[in-house]
Amino acid sequence: MTHRKGLVLDFGGVLTTPLLPAVLAFEEREGLSRGALINALYLDPGAVRRTQELERGSLTQDEWNAEAGRALGIPGDNLMGRVFADLRPETSVIAAAAAARRAGVKAGILSNSVGLSPWNLYEGYDLDRNYDAVVISERHGLRKPEPEIFALVLKMLELPAEECVFVDDSEEHLAPAAELGFATVHAREPGRTVARLEELLGVPLGGAG
Predict the structure, then answer these.
(1) CATH number of the domain at 6-17+88-201, out of 3.30.390.10, 3.40.50.1970, 3.40.50.300, 3.40.50.1000?
(2) pTM of the predicted model, to two decimals?
């Protein structure tokens, strides 16, 4: 097996705890019915388009908050921050990425933004210091799964896709990455993710592999 030399990680749901439990906890706090957020924001075509505009940076987080609040019938003030208030660092995956870098693997972040203000999902993670490349979608007017954003992170890492592993919790982003040549890992459980990365990178990362 040829071991890969680069590691590209999604952020939310990979370097953080899973998104869905945070969303369900938010719905409970706000007195919303279970699934209300997903139904209102991710199954409605207009809401999906607004979220994609947010990811590209053509819609501000404040604008998204206001529209989403209206759709849910709740206040929009710092809504994104309230939705994801329960997210915490996924320490085992963060530690694995650090171990990979110490072993000579280049590591990058490739994340679809949820806006950076007033609430910043990435605050406290010191991404610029801890990773070799950081691509946040809104800064570039691109979003996953567009090939151009994968090409951008590869350019920053100075590696071809065939030498890299891509990790994401969203299946819709994995197939396009695989088509470009990445080895892909679906992040569903941190221990399994780390073990699979050990296999693909050929270095010990603190997992079971």
Answers:
(1) 3.40.50.1000
(2) 0.95
